[in-house]
Design a protein that fits this description.
Elements: E1 9-13, H1 22-36, E2 42-49, H2 52-55, H3 67-74, H4 79-91, E3 95-100, H5 103-112, E4 116-119, H6 127-133, E5 140-143, H7 149-161, E6 166-171, H8 185-193, E7 198-202, H9 211-218, E8 223-228, E9 241-242, H10 244-261, H11 272-279, E10 284-287, E11 296-297, E12 302-305, E13 322-326, E14 341-345, H12 347-364, E15 373-377, E16 390-397, E17 400-407, E18 411-417, E19 423-430, E20 432-436, E21 439-443, E22 448-451, E23 457-461, E24 465-472, E25 480-481, H13 484-488, E26 493-496
Parallel strand pairs: 1-2, 1-8, 2-3, 3-4, 4-5, 5-6, 6-7, 7-8, 8-9
Antiparallel strand pairs: 10-12, 11-13, 13-14, 15-16, 15-26, 16-17, 17-24, 18-23, 18-25, 19-22, 19-24, 20-21, 20-23
């Protein structure tokens, strides 16, 4: 099995419900294995290991009046018996887990090569035991019932420091746990406090109540644990252990939660019925006047109205990134649709530029401040960006201003000047050819050049460059290009806020 803790892991805790009889334990494993095979989850059987010879105080071994000593002694099994259980579990293709309550039991886990070690709530800060557990490379799951915040902080730090694969479980050590005491919101608390740690739910509530698995699953728990028992005339079942039929209902509820929640890792894709329903409520694009074949369709040529026709483009398909061209003559009030118009989505070109910029920044090993917006200057349009253009990252703009300028290989920035802004270029990566008022200068890494107000300047790079621009305040309308075509192009910039990986 993998050295990782699998996602959607459901742990069936046998504890002492084998009743000290190997045959009963194996029957239990088979019965629950049959139930679990119906469900799309990962499963594990968990056992409890205690070396009773040394675990119980010598003077207390015969004290049958002590509840747990009586229970542990009467259901004691040999190590070879647990090995038989492990064999039976593996035949079900389940993961194998054990909770050791002493150091000698950890040795048995290692000898049997079980998949995962579980730390019980009562042992959560049993440091001698924990120090022994982390001597091997097995994944660890730890229950947190009764633990203080500082205790959990310490354990998380302890395991992180040792680079362990581990998870922690919300748990209430009350058997059975009344619903008012479940405190399921602790799952959210643990997820927020330990964002890089897997969180699970070890449960002891009424086995017939499936509501809480729905809640825990929806809160993001990804490991679940229940005590299990097999009905038998000879043995009573405690109030917090589940029978096969109860586990069946529990898993059925978990499966329902999984399906209803859908994909939690990425935005879901809308289904066809949903798209059709939404499109029928949108405004269609219609011709405001006669549009000739091969004419570029602008906002002045159209209007938006309800209802839309089939195959028609809608107002939701209109933006500065989407360009329309008539494939045939279009009459006034006719729809703009897939048959009479060609739609070009320039966003694909934008994201190709973003990808190039990301790769160039990685290559240059330039650190980008979090939250820096990305401004793409495409002076003569996106089709000519590779030859004429620039990408700017805005870092800060106050009485002083800092930007990072990215010139991709072979790019040229056309001549311009600023009336209000004075700026200094500091070359961080690559080489730049800059012309300031007709004078050509070559700048390499570490070089600095200052451009005064009203000085005309153009720059380019054969192999690409990163420029740190430090200046006075930047003003939106303070770039004056020598080429009037650029000045008349009102759509020469694209600004992106969310562009980093």
């Amino acid at each position: 099995m993998s050295k990782k803790i699998p996602n959607n892991l459901f742990i069936l805790e046998m504890a002492n419900n084998h009743m000290g009889q190997v045959n009963h334990g194996i029957k239990l494993i088979k019965a629950f294995g049959k139930i679990c095979k119906k469900y799309p989850f990962n499963f594990a059987f968990k056992f409890q290991y205690r070396e009773l010879r040394t675990f119980i105080h010598p003077k207390m071994k015969k004290r049958k009046d002590v509840k747990f000593i009586k229970r542990f002694s009467e259901t004691e099994l040999q190590k070879s018996d647990f090995t038989k259980f492990i064999t039976a579990v593996k035949k079900q293709n389940f993961y194998t887990i054990s909770t050791p309550f002493d150091e000698e039991s950890v040795q048995l886990i290692e000898k049997q090569n079980l998949d995962i070690i579980k730390i019980a709530s009562c042992s959560f800060n049993d440091w001698p035991l924990l120090e022994r557990v982390v001597e091997n490379n097995k994944p660890i799951i730890a229950s947190t019932a009764g633990a203080k915040e500082k205790d959990i902080d310490q354990i998380v730090s302890f395991l992180n420091h040792r680079k362990k694969e581990f998870a922690i479980m919300h748990c209430i050590a009350e058997y059975p746990t009344p619903s008012k005491n479940l405190n399921l919101a602790q799952i959210n608390y643990l997820k927020k406090r330990y964002p890089n740690v897997r969180i699970g739910f070890s449960t002891h509530e009424n086995p017939s109540d499936e509501r809480f698995i729905l809640m825990a699953y929806s809160m993001g728990a990804s490991i679940f644990e229940r005590h299990v028992a097999l009905p038998d005339k000879l043995f009573d079942i405690n109030e917090y252990s589940s029978t096969p039929s109860q586990i069946d209902n529990w898993l059925k509820a978990a499966k329902f939660a999984k399906i209803a929640l859908g994909n939690q890792n990425k935005k879901s894709i809308p289904n066809k019925k949903e798209i059709l329903n939404l499109t029928s409520l949108q405004r269609g694009i219609f011709a405001k006047k006669f549009i000739r074949k091969n004419q570029n369709i602008t906002r002045h040529d159209v209007y938006f109205a309800f209802p839309p026709e089939k195959k028609q483009y809608t107002a939701n398909n209109w933006s500065k990134y989407l360009k329309y061209k008539a494939k045939k003559n279009i009459k006034k009030n006719d729809s703009i649709n897939q048959f009479n118009s060609k739609l070009t989505d320039t966003r694909e070109k934008i994201w190709l530029i973003v990808k190039k910029v990301r790769n160039f920044l990685k290559k240059s090993k330039t650190t980008i401040p979090g939250g820096a917006s990305l401004e793409i200057s495409h002076h003569y349009g996106l089709d000519k960006f590779n030859k004429f253009g620039l990408v700017m990252l805005d870092v800060i703009n106050r009485d002083y201003c800092k930007k990072l300028l990215v010139l991709l290989p072979g790019q040229h920035h056309p001549e311009q000047m600023h009336k209000k802004k004075e700026e200094t270029f500091h070359i961080l990566y690559g080489s730049v050819k800059i012309n300031i008022d007709g004078k050509n200068i070559t700048l390499n890494v570490g070089d600095v050049a200052t451009i005064l107000k009203k000085q005309k300047h153009a720059f380019s790079s054969n192999k690409g460059a990163i420029i740190e621009e430090i200046s006075t305040t930047h003003y939106k309308n303070d770039s004056f290009y020598s080429d009037k075509k650029i000045m008349n192009n009102k759509n020469r910039k694209t600004i992106l806020t969310y562009w980093m990986e």
